[in-house]
Amino acid sequence: MEVKKICCLGAGTIGSQIAQLSAMQGFDVILRDVDDKALKTCSKVINEGLKKHFVDKGKITQKEADDVLAKIIFTTNLERYCQDFDLVIESVPENLALKQQIFKKLDEICPQRTILASNSSALSVTEISAQSKRKDKILGLHFSNPPTILNLVEVRRCLGTSEETLNTSKEVLRKLGQEYLIVKDYPGGLARLLNVMMNEAIKMVAEGICTPEQIDLVCKKALGHRWGIFEVIDINMEIPLSVLSYLQKELGDQYTPAPLLKQMVFSGRTGRKVGKGFYDYTSK
C-alpha cells in the first residue's frame, strides 16, 4: 500500500514536528488536536520555524515554505477526514486509558487499509491497541525528539503486525529521511534505557555526589553525547516520571522514580516549558 495521507494526532512538540516533516516530504497531512487554541499555536510555530530554520538559511524559498504549510490541515474534527487516512501516528500524552480510547475510536472510524501507529515512548503498543480488531495494521513508531533534528525511529512490532504493515511503514520512514530499528513491543521499549539513566543521574545529584552540570559534562565530553542527560530531562520532566512509574508497575520496584524527580514534578518545576528544572531558563 502506498501512503499518501498521514494523520498526526496531538499538536504537541513531537506531533507538530512529525506533521511538519511529513508535509516537507510531500505527504498530505491532517494534524488533529482536541484544543483549537493548541492548533493555532502549532500553526504559528511551524510557520515561524520554517522561516527561521529553512527560508532564512536559504534551504528553501518562501514559496516552498508556504506550500509545506498548505499541505497541513489543522482540525479538531477527526471524523471529517478519517476516510482518507492511510497512516495515523498518535502522539498524545502518555496516558494508557487515553491512548486506548483513541485507538478504539480509530479502529471504528478508519478504513480497513489504515495503519494505526503509536509514538508512545514506553507504553506497550499491544496494550494500547487491545480493543482494536485490525491487529495486523498496528505498530509503534517512536520518533526521537525532536524529529526534525534527530533522524532515528524505534519501530515496535507487535505479535500481530503484518509484513505488509511493517514494509509500508519502513517505506514512509525512508521518505521522511529517518533511520529506523525494529524491536519487539515490550513495556518501556528502548526508552527504558534512557529513563533508567535519567533516574540514576537524579539519584546521584540528590545524594550530593555531583551536580547536574558535572554529569552533563561527562555525558558530552567522555561519552560523546549531543546533549547532557539533565538537558534532556529538562525538556519535560513529567515524561520520565510517567515512564518510570509505568515501568515500576509493569516490571518491578527497581524502576521506582527517584524521590527528587517526584518532588520536582509535584512542585511544578518541570523544565524548559515553565522556565525552571534542574537548570534555570528564565534569563535565557
Structure description:
46% of the residues lie in helices and 14% in strands. It has helices at 13-24, 36-55, 62-70, 78-81, 96-109, 125-128, 163-175, 191-206, 212-222, 229-233, 238-251, 259-266, and strands at residues 5-9, 28-32, 72-75, 87-90, 115-118, 138-143, 152-157, 179-184. The protein is of the alpha/beta class and 284 residues long. An eight-stranded mixed sheet has the order 3-2-1-4-5-6-7-8, with helices on both faces.
Question: Which descriptors would you attach to this protein?
Answer:
globular, alpha/beta, 12 helices, eight-stranded mixed β-sheet, 284 residues, 8 strands
Biggest sheet overview? 8 strands, mixed
Name the helicity range.
Answer: 40-55%
Question: How far apart are the termini?
Answer: 47 Å
Residue-averaged pLDDT: 95
Radius of gyration: 19 Å
Beta-strand level of the residues, as a percent range?
5-15%
Number of helices: 12
Coarse morphology: globular
- How many E-type strands? 8
Topology as a string of helices (H) and strands (E): EHEHHEHEHEHEEHEHHHHH
Structural class: alpha/beta
User: Which regions contain 5 or more consecutive residues with pLDDT less than 50?
Assistant: none
Widest sheet: strand ordering: 3-2-1-4-5-6-7-8
Helix and strand layout, with pairings?
Elements: E1 5-9, H1 13-24, E2 28-32, H2 36-55, H3 62-70, E3 72-75, H4 78-81, E4 87-90, H5 96-109, E5 115-118, H6 125-128, E6 138-143, E7 152-157, H7 163-175, E8 179-184, H8 191-206, H9 212-222, H10 229-233, H11 238-251, H12 259-266
Parallel strand pairs: 1-2, 1-4, 2-3, 4-5, 5-6, 7-8
Antiparallel strand pairs: 6-7
Helix pairs in contact: 2-3, 8-11
